[in-house]
Amino acid sequence: MLKKQILMLMAILFIGVSVFSQKSELKAADKAIKKNDFTAAMTALNSAEGLIANAEVKYQAKYYYLKGMALYANGTKPANIDAVATAFNKLIAIEKKSGDGTYSKQAGETLNTIINKAAEDAQKAYDAAKAMSDDAGYVKAAKNYERVYLLSPADTSYLNNSAMLLAVGKSYEKSNEQYQQLLDIGYTGIATTYSATSTVNEEVVYFNSQKDMNQKVKLGIAIDPKTQISKSKVNDIIKAIATNYGRLENNEKALEFIKKAREVNPNDYDLVIEEANVYYRMGDDAKFKEKLEEAIKLNPTDPNLYFNVGVMNMNLGDNEAATKSFKKAIELNPDFGDAYNNLGAMVLDRAKPVKEELDANAMNFKKYDKIKAEKLLPIYEEALVYYEKAQALIPNDEALKNLVNSLYENLEIDKRID
């Protein structure tokens, strides 16, 4: 019995020493921070770190507040910003759970300063990347936007900005990780904005709340109040994930997310095109053609769609359908050089059996000349019309230039393109 009492007494003594140590180290850190001796503050906090997990909530909150302030060092340690954010966010989480916001309020001003600076840095990085069209610059800007989100997790739009810029910077895997994170936390992107027209300068003014807007209207400072609710961005995110998977050539995943996105918006033209591209990469010409034809129904004035359908029909051996598609592409875009080139190729393709017939009659000069004059040369003349047009529109294509010159020679036309 006596042994148990001694052990209990030792436990109580240990707890008392621990609490005393916590208080002592936190007090020392507090004093050091007030003296701007941030190194000494961190030394004291590191000594208390092992005791904090089991400490009272108020000491946990104070610890993370002091740690954030010591790491921040009045803004002289920019490299510590992420660690500062982690400390302050732990503080906020602790006090939110306990219902006490004492230290959160004290940290608020510093955290807001950090957040505003990070947001400014993100915008500057984005502007620089945009000016240079620099992939690495976009990734850098994305990291800055992600930092703003980490500093202020409630501002989920910054994570969305980061995911978008990562995709622009071709960092598709990281972009998808962040997009998936947004979906996992239930991000919708739906936002309500309050605006009214100033009676002073007639400019549109935005307000933080409906109450604020209504108050300004009531005072006559603003007129024409408007409350606008933005659309959900969830389907845009799913669509972006599908596009990223497409860029990564993960065709199965791309199709999976395209299917999800099209369940919400089956007539999304960009999604149909993305789906067509996936099937093209998979080598499924029939499906590629099917999706292109679907896209044509949604956007019947895009010459590229008709051209691509023409190519598919051409590959499938349906020259009649291909010709129709290429001519439609030219109708929509008279300067479509590749369409003229393919039309010429299909005409020239008709010369193959004629050449075989010529080879079979190589020793019958009379018949040979008759076949050439009546069958081969008319094909060359018809093809030349398309090839000349194509060469004029694509003047730097050496192979095309040589082909036109060859047709001139076969048709005995005294003309040559240098």
Describe it:
The structure is a single chain. The protein has 418 residues and is mainly alpha-helical. Among the domains are: 70 residues; 38 residues, no CATH class; 163 residues, Serine Threonine Protein Phosphatase 5, Tetratricopeptide repeat (Alpha Horseshoe), CATH 1.25.40.10. Helix content is 74%, strand content 5%. The chain contains 19 helices and three strands. It has a three-stranded antiparallel β-sheet with strand order 2-1-3, covered by helices on one side. Strand 1 and strand 2 form a beta hairpin. The protein is elongated. The termini are far apart. About 3% of the residues have low confidence.
Averaged pLDDT: 89
Low-confidence stretches: 6-18
Oligomeric form of this entry?
single chain
- How widely separated are the two ends? 112 Å
Give me the CATH superfamily of one domain: Tetratricopeptide repeat domain
Spatial strand order of the main sheet: 2-1-3
Biggest sheet character = 3 strands, antiparallel
Assign the CATH topology of one domain: Serine Threonine Protein Phosphatase 5, Tetratricopeptide repeat
What's the architecture of one domain in CATH terms?
Answer: Alpha Horseshoe
Q: How many strands appear in the DSSP assignment? A: 3
The structural class is mainly alpha
Helix content: over 70%
Task: Output the keywords.
Serine Threonine Protein Phosphatase 5, Tetratricopeptide repeat, single chain, 418 residues, 19 helices, mainly alpha, three-stranded antiparallel β-sheet
SSE arrangement:
Blueprint: H1 2-34, H2 38-52, H3 57-72, H4 81-98, H5 102-132, H6 135-151, H7 157-168, H8 172-184, E1 192-198, E2 204-207, H9 210-218, E3 222-229, H10 234-247, H11 251-264, H12 269-281, H13 285-298, H14 303-315, H15 319-332, H16 337-349, H17 351-360, H18 365-393, H19 398-410
Antiparallel strand pairs: 1-2, 1-3
